Amino acid sequence: MKVRLCVCYFVKAEKLTPGGLPVRTVLTSYYKSKHFKCRAHDSFNDFTSPDQAILCKDSNQSMYCQLLSGLVHRHQVLRIGAVFASALLRAISFLEHNWVHLVNDIRSGQVDPMITDPECRSSMSMILSSPNPCLADEIEEICSRPSWKGILYHLWPRTKYIEAVVTGSMAQYVPALDYYSEGSCLWCTMYASSECYFGVNLEPLCDPADVVFTLMPNMCYFEFIPLGENGKWLMDVGEEEEVPSDKLVDLVHVRRGCYYELVVTTFAGLYRYRIGDVLQVTGFHNQAPQFRFICRRNVVLSIDNDKTNEEDLHKSITAAKKLLEPYGALLVEYTSYADTSSVPGHYVLYWEILHHASVIKDTPIPLDAKVLQECCIAVEEELDYVYRRCRAYDKSIGPLEIRVVEPGTFEALMDLFIGQGGSLNQYKTPRCIKSNAALVLLNSHVKASFFSPRDPTWIP
């Protein structure tokens, strides 16, 4: 039995160093290698997309062809996958804007003229070997519905699970994926980076919030910088600082409940390389420690003495966005910025909000200003003691601001970073914006701005 996998994988055009050496992302390197191109047939890992669509350098043409392939084989698909949850949501958005063209291709049996890549056209012409008006009518009926809740399940009814990274900053996308998949199981199977493959999730059926990884010692030599326990950092090592060897802990000496920054020595030649990920030991599988991904050390907001990391930011926004639910609204994406252009400086959150009723029509329904102000308060109440002291007592930080941006703003942000050399396949929305060009783009799409109407609670 074939287990067809509808994928959203992409390559990035490589660059050359001044010495002529090719530079490319690890996934692009794999997709272009003989290990991928000449792989043996695997009936449990059979992609709906032809390799030519995955290897197409134009991400829009690649996306179009991969979605078209998936729709043609919709009754055979048992799994849907992308590297990161963000890429899968980008595919859903692309489908929302292009399903009419895709349906026309299936109905006519001909590829849309927008597909100009010769290899993509050739491979897709073989898939669209003849007109299929019945299939086109099925897809048109589904995509024309007033709500896209459960759209993945309706388009691919035999899907057993969705596979993508949903930990760390990707946890933000879990509610949106639940909405579009109507609660289908989300699998987060691996922990890896461009530097090395680290470990696996031994319980892929677990809730995304409970995902832990078991590191595999044959991948590299693991060491750890102790950071603390119970959420309190005991050691503050700068990102560029060299860590004394006597401060490093190896894999067998980590302790349950403690936080560590990951350091690796790899077969490829990296020596004591700081990955920048903060992990917490949650338990053990036999004698092997298991880790929960917490955050990236280099994502932090700071105005005064405050230091807000990615985990704190995510927790606070997770609490605040619940206030949107009674209004049928969904926070689909966010980022932040420490605005020091005024005194005192303040935190700025950029929110893209989607109302469930506007998933198809793309007609945003405005929320009452009081609701967004309450969201500002909820975020501040969840931030740590130091931030709340600076806000309520020291007055060294101004009221938190939420800037609501137009639908599609974060797709434009993704396009900006990809245009600057980023990879669509490995793109992650930065949780703290430091690029002037990105700030200009975000601010140009702001629809409304809301400030926290009061100080957060602070008890000396």
Structural notes for this entry:
One of its GO terms (cellular component) is cytoplasm. This protein has 460 residues and is of the alpha+beta class. The protein has 3 domains: 4-187, no CATH class; 210-296, no CATH class; 300-451. The protein is built from 14 helices and 22 strands. The chain has helices at 26-31, 34-37, 51-54, 59-72, 85-108, 118-127, 133-143, 151-155, 174-181, 310-321, 369-382, 385-394, 409-419, 436-444; strands spanning 4-8, 15-16, 22-23, 46-47, 77-84, 161-165, 185-187, 190-192, 197-200, 213-215, 221-229, 232-233, 249-250, 258-265, 273-285, 288-296, 300-301, 308-309, 329-339, 346-355, 401-405, 446-451. The longest helix has 24 residues, at 85-108.
Protein topology:
Layout: E1 4-8, E2 15-16, E3 22-23, H1 26-31, H2 34-37, E4 46-47, H3 51-54, H4 59-72, E5 77-84, H5 85-108, H6 118-127, H7 133-143, H8 151-155, E6 161-165, H9 174-181, E7 185-187, E8 190-192, E9 197-200, E10 213-215, E11 221-229, E12 232-233, E13 249-250, E14 258-265, E15 273-285, E16 288-296, E17 300-301, E18 308-309, H10 310-321, E19 329-339, E20 346-355, H11 369-382, H12 385-394, E21 401-405, H13 409-419, H14 436-444, E22 446-451
Parallel strand pairs: 1-4, 1-5, 5-6, 6-7, 20-21
Antiparallel strand pairs: 2-3, 8-9, 9-10, 10-16, 11-12, 11-13, 11-14, 14-15, 15-16, 17-18, 19-20, 21-22
Helix pairs in contact: 4-5, 5-7, 10-11, 13-14
Question: What are the main properties of this structure?
Answer:
460 residues; 3 domains; 9-stranded antiparallel beta sheet
